[in-house]
Amino acid sequence: MRNFDYVGLKNQKWDSETVAYIASIHEAKGRQELYLKQKPQKLNKLVEIDRIQSTETSNEIEDIRTTNTRLKQLLCDKTTPRTRDEEEIAGYRDALNVIRENYEYIPVTANYILQLHKILYSHSGKSIGGKLKTCRTISMR
């Protein structure tokens, strides 16, 4: 969990624009908490739609595709990957789940990035996941 030192803030002068932003954030947070209590099913449906669209779009950037039906099955962990593309989608799903469930506690360090990389390749059977690739320096003489 992140810790913040608020000691210096009590003497800070704030302009009206900043105060208005803080008030808007506080108001939105209150609406969000009310919405979470009143309509959790709708929120869960929106989260599910986001997972599908995010996974589909992110993988399409890498030219990784499958059918909508297979994508939904892979994201719900109701099937095993059949193709290389589906293996990558399943790895992406697993890494994204780790990030979404633990984002508050994941520091941006090489070890965590390598761990996520290993998760990405966990369905591929390849041993490259989570390992640094060493590169040779080419001299330009």
Quick synopsis:
With 141 residues, the protein is mostly helical.
Number of strands: 0
Counting DSSP H or I runs of 4 or more residues, the number of helices is 5
* Mean pLDDT reading: 86
Strand content: under 5%
List the helices and strands and how they pair.
Elements: H1 16-38, H2 40-61, H3 68-75, H4 84-102, H5 110-120
Helix pairs in contact: 2-4, 3-4, 4-5
What does this structure look like?
The chain is an all-alpha fold and 141 residues long. It contains five helices and no strands. It has helices at 16-38, 40-61, 68-75, 84-102, 110-120. The longest helix has 23 residues, at 16-38. The termini are far apart.
Which characteristics define this entry?
extended; single chain; mainly alpha; 141 residues
